[in-house]
Amino acid sequence: MTLLTRWGKALDPDAVLPEYPRPQLVRDSFLNLNGRWEYAFTDTEPAEPAAHAEPAERAEYANTGPAEYDGEIVVPFSPESALSGVGRQLRPDETLWYRRTVRLPDGFRREGHRVLLHFGAVDQVCRVTVDGREAGRHEGGYLPFHFDVTDLLDDGAGTLVVEVQDPSDTGDRGWGKQRLKRGGIWYTAQSGIWQTVWIECVPEVHVERLTLVPHLDESCVEVTVHADAGGEPARIEVRAGDEVVGHAEAAANEPVRIPVADVRPWSPEDPFLYGITVELGADRVESYAGMRSFGVGPDEHGVPRLLLNGRPYFHAGVLDQGYWSDGMYTAPSDEALVHDIATMKRLGFTMLRKHIKVEPARWYHHCDRIGILVWQDMVNGGGPYRPEVVTAPAVSPLRLNDTRHRRFGRADAASRERFRAETRETIEHLRNVVSIAVWVPFNEGWGQFDAAAVAAEVRALDPTRTIDHASGWHDQRAGDLRSLHVYFRRFRVPRRRDARVLVLSEYGGYNLRVDGHAFSGKDFGYKRYHSADRLGAAFARLHAREIVPAIPRGLAATVYTQLSDVEDELNGLLTHDREVCKLPADLVRSVNARLTSAGGPPPPTR
């Protein structure tokens, strides 16, 4: 059954996701390429040149795709989604082609500037050509990339072709919760372009990226301007509203600490953001930062807790899969993204666990400005997975040594290195996000390997955040958190003492089918109820009997499953189309208020 959200029903194919896609590096140059493209499916031809081939070899291979295209697709919705207008699965032995013409508006390209073509994400392997000449290639389905197409757009125009292959769960790169044979906790595989495609014009010398590190205890923000600047200094300004509260000049690629007067800390209760302007030669970018710190430490009773701005802070979280009934991985609008975040905050949650997915940058921006913490999962890969590793621990205590790679679906050394590389790239991509408090490398043994070593690598990459090295089971006694998933038994605080912080990183998952708002006739969940009253009573009882009493004994964070229904899973607080909240808002708020009050007072606000 196709379930359209209210935003999907109102979608204008000629004005799809028109918002600027990169809120922490904003320029005044922006051409959105979302909307109507041509598409075609073909059988994949063998013997492509290697990705490391010389440009001349790749250009010689480049072609313009099929002679005829199958029809029209609405980008950036995957062809498997309803909003794409296609509704067809890309198979591992097929190639998906996209085509459209591009013409730069008059005055868009300035003298001495370069033209960059950006893709928010393409799942999973793609090659891009302009008028048959190759612009570049990219592998990996969840992170942004760009190509310099200055010399390929003759007179500011050209035909853009994107060629995509996606093995999904038959491959070993990050594929998340997608499966070609969907069902239960595994969802319909999606492919191709699924985030905004856009063009910008930049000076020859320009800011490539920023690294922003708040040092709350020192009342300063550390800024690194990454650029090939040839010695030209960057000018940096920090603002609180319209007031300049700090400024500096710094060489490119060298960190500089800028004192901030009268610091206003960021928190969910007061999500204050400082504006940052950087000028480098003719380039000017706008960004922002939040002054906050994350950590772990003892409370007044010596119990390990999660710290926000140096104080114990309870994370009352909800599992957020980021799937939409009509757009799949892609939200039908920016307003829809805001709806999920704002609704969970109104229900009293202080944290979202972004589960096995990397969202568009605007989602994190809304978390930053609305004020809600984020636990960020890495995207799992590897496989195939063994039931005794990924399923059995849900019902019986089992802790396996994850250096036995074959058992965990990670026998291939190249697969393990690709995961490490994707982890590094994900952290670098999201490093400046104010709201991200916790990195989660592995979940429930899915493609897990060497979790203790991976946690150490994550720590070296980013020592400012907390690490949940193995969420659920197969704890290797590393990271900052002792992380449990409990669905089929009563939750009890473990007897074994542990210096790490105790978190219940998944629980609940109570089901309720809402007629007219379900994806299919199937019904997956962990406890099934047949009325909202019984579901509400069970929800309140679970927290009163098991969760709230555990907080004084050390429980420091919870992640309820889940934000919304997803396909066969009917255990969401919201239906898959986001039209129905299954529980009274007052009930959920009161339960979350008990959790957060038991976990200690919120940080002070202005």
Instruction: Report on the biggest sheet.
Output: 8 strands, parallel
Beta-strand share of residues: 25-35%
Helical residue percent band: 10-25%
Count the DSSP helices: 9
Principal-axes shape call: globular
Strand order of the largest sheet: 30-28-27-26-25-36-33-32
Tally of strands: 36
Mean pLDDT equals 95
The secondary structure category is alpha/beta
Radius of gyration: 24 Å
Q: Which blocks of ≥5 consecutive residues have pLDDT under 50?
A: 55-61
End-to-end separation? 48 Å
Task: Report on this structure.
By secondary structure, the chain is α/β, with parallel strands linked by helices. Strand 26 (351-354), helix 4 (361-370) and strand 27 form a beta-alpha-beta unit. Mean pLDDT is 95; it is low at 55-61.
Main attributes?
606 residues; alpha/beta; eight-stranded parallel sheet; six-stranded antiparallel sheet; 9 helices; 36 strands; 31% strand
Topology at a glance:
Elements: H1 6-9, E1 31-32, E2 35-43, H2 55-61, E3 71-75, E4 94-103, E5 113-119, E6 122-123, E7 125-130, E8 133-139, E9 145-148, E10 157-165, E11 178-179, E12 187-188, E13 192-193, E14 197-203, E15 209-215, E16 220-226, E17 233-240, E18 243-251, E19 256-259, E20 274-280, E21 283-289, E22 294-298, E23 304-308, E24 311-312, E25 315-320, H3 334-346, E26 351-354, H4 361-370, E27 373-377, H5 387-390, H6 413-430, E28 436-440, E29 442-443, H7 451-461, E30 466-467, E31 470-471, E32 481-486, E33 501-508, E34 510-512, E35 527-529, H8 532-547, E36 555-561, H9 585-598
Parallel strand pairs: 11-12, 25-26, 25-36, 26-27, 27-28, 28-30, 29-31, 32-33, 33-36, 34-35
Antiparallel strand pairs: 1-14, 2-3, 2-4, 4-10, 5-9, 5-14, 6-13, 7-8, 7-10, 15-16, 16-19, 17-18, 17-20, 20-21, 22-23, 23-24
